[in-house]
Amino acid sequence: MPGLLLGDEAPNFEADTTQGRIRFHDFLGDSWGILFSHPRDFTPVCTTELGRAAKLAPEFSKRNVKMIALSIDSVQDHLSWCKVTALGRPQGAACKPSQPWRDVCHIPKRGGAGIQSRNGEFSIFVERPTKCSVQEENNIFAVPPLAERDINAYNGDQPAEKLPFPIIADKNRELAVKLGMLDPDELDKDGMPLTARVVFVFGPDKKLKLSILYPATTGRNFDEILRVVDSLQLTAYKKVATPVDWKPGDSVMVVPTLPDEEAKKLFPKGVFTKELPSGKKYLRYTPQPE
Amino acid sequence: MPGLLLGDEAPNFEADTTQGRIRFHDFLGDSWGILFSHPRDFTPVCTTELGRAAKLAPEFSKRNVKMIALSIDSVQDHLSWCKVTALGRPQGAACKPSQPWRDVCHIPKRGGAGIQSRNGEFSIFVERPTKCSVQEENNIFAVPPLAERDINAYNGDQPAEKLPFPIIADKNRELAVKLGMLDPDELDKDGMPLTARVVFVFGPDKKLKLSILYPATTGRNFDEILRVVDSLQLTAYKKVATPVDWKPGDSVMVVPTLPDEEAKKLFPKGVFTKELPSGKKYLRYTPQPE
Q: Which residue among B42, B153, B219 places its CB closest to the CB of A243?
């Protein structure tokens, strides 16, 4: 992939995300990982994609794959003015209940609440927990940002549900450039390219196992992403490869380097060799091993 | 993609292929193009992939997409000793009918035929056309190389049918390195990496529109490749984008830069806007335009 080739180690970048600041290797831990970029919040294809990704999060989790999205939006800014401080820790001046941020951040019309500014970032405090969509996290009540709420709504979920994965805010395009993620055909109002639809799959060794690079106008196929994750994980641990158009449960191919005798022992369900004009015996199938 | 980012122009390389020497830009002409690499001839997944690609060739052709494969095999060597010179132009010494090349190259047991050597390349001549699998091309009778015959046999076709696309012989890995196609986890007997399963899709402007990079052990999904070609071509000519998991015939998204009024005119089948918590009106669907 752009900037990253097969076998390259993931850069151990630091970044701000919708779930706080991360260092990428710490985020990955010993898991598999999928880093996927999208052009922009509040755009149509991205919303359908992140909605589908959110729906599939349990499938990725079951496979021990950590998900993290990325766009060049200032997710940090976006979040910062929606942060709600913890109960009993008012940090700013109260402001009128009619202010638009109450609606935007799902703050109830009544009750003490206010906006504070600190180091140029805005945050919101409330005086007591409410029945609204405020969720507690690290002693901070965080309200999902607007884009997240749109994604949930797209899925038919409660707008206030939390996305099951963080989104990296790559506002200055540092990661996008480093990882070759930009789409020169999609420009923002300043004429700067947006991020393309990239997928990087990393193994537990943090090395790149697979990537795809689609332009902004072509939404990805998340069934295909799950399919290749299944193939990567199966072939990482078994001496098999998956043929064209393989789906989980289909027969697989025995890797060419494995001698016939060993293959027979290793695959007790049987190895079936297809006859070929060359007379070579390399087209060896076996049912998918457990 | 490795070595190539979205919007990069395809390098105008020269290369030997199973259909002769090409210059890439001339090969592409004004068509769309798909360049796809595989690790090695005579290996299982590659055979299933090229078999499927051969079956789908009419679909790509219908979409004005030229196909060309690539591996680090010496396809040139492979072919050169299978070349059969034209009728009446014997260029070498006759040799015994029992020689193995007669079987390998589908030369009939009887009839004048011989092997010639010229500039270090071997070719085969026959004295008259035969009923065997020899095909005329540019006044040269060419017999498909072994790998091609295996691929056809895999498909259940006549072994002697010609693959509907050329395969580049990148013996010295020059293109593989330049285009970032190598898979460090798949080594040949000399410990050198093989080519991964890369797909580059180029537009008629010869610029990269999309790429995928799968390792040797994960066979590709050619339905997905056709799907994205359909998306790329639709979105290149219409002001739409295709949502996640889109398939031809499904509704598409109106691009965000198109004002509502213009969208209504441009898409007479109607534009449907989904309500979202943010209140923004960007999730606009329309039936796939003709």
A: B219
DSSP string, A226-290: HHHHHHHHHHHHSSEEB-TT--TTS-EEEPTTS-HHHHHHH-TT--EE---TT-----EEEPPP-
Predicted structure pTM score:
0.79
Q: Report the run of H or E that residue B112 belongs to, with start and end.
A: none
Q: Are A212 and B213 an interchain contact pair (Cβ–Cβ within 8 Å)?
A: yes
- pLDDT bin (cut points 50, 70, 90) of residue A133 is very low
Using the Cα atoms of residue A16, residue A18, residue A20 and residue A25 in order, give the sign of their dihedral. Answer: negative
> Stretch B39-66: mean pLDDT, rounded?
88
User: Residue A69 pairs with which residues in a beta bridge?
Assistant: A36, A167
Residue in the structure block whose two tokens are 């790149």? A208
- Could A277 and B146 be called an inter-chain contact, meaning their C-beta atoms sit closer than 8 Å? yes
Q: How many CB atoms lie within 10 A of CB A14?
A: 9
pLDDT, one tens digit per residue, over A8-33 is: 999 999 998 888 899 999 999 999 99
Q: Is the pLDDT of residue B288 over 70?
A: yes
Q: Which helix (H) or strand (E) holds B166?
A: none
Which one, of A107, A81, A85, lies nearest residue A96 by Cα?
Answer: A107
Catalytic residue check, A46: yes
A132 is catalytic: no
The letter for the amino acid at A53 is: A
Q: If you compute the radius of gyration of chain A from its CA atoms, what whole number of angstroms results?
A: 23
Query: Once rounded to an integer, what is the mean pLDDT over residues B93-109?
Result: 39
In CATH, the number for domain A238-286 is 3.30.1020.10
Which of B196, B242, B275 comes nearest A219 by C-beta? B242
Q: How far is CA A276 from CA A256, A262, B98, B131, B211, in A?
A: 15, 22, 21, 21, 32
Chain centroid, CA A5 distance in Å: 19
CATH class for the region spanning A14-78+161-220: alpha beta
Task: Provide the residue ranges of all domains of chain A, joining segments of one domain with +.
Answer: 14-78+161-220, 81-144, 238-286
What is the average pLDDT across A273-277? 83
Residue of chain A nearest B201, judged by CA positions: A214
DSSP-derived letter for residue A9 is B
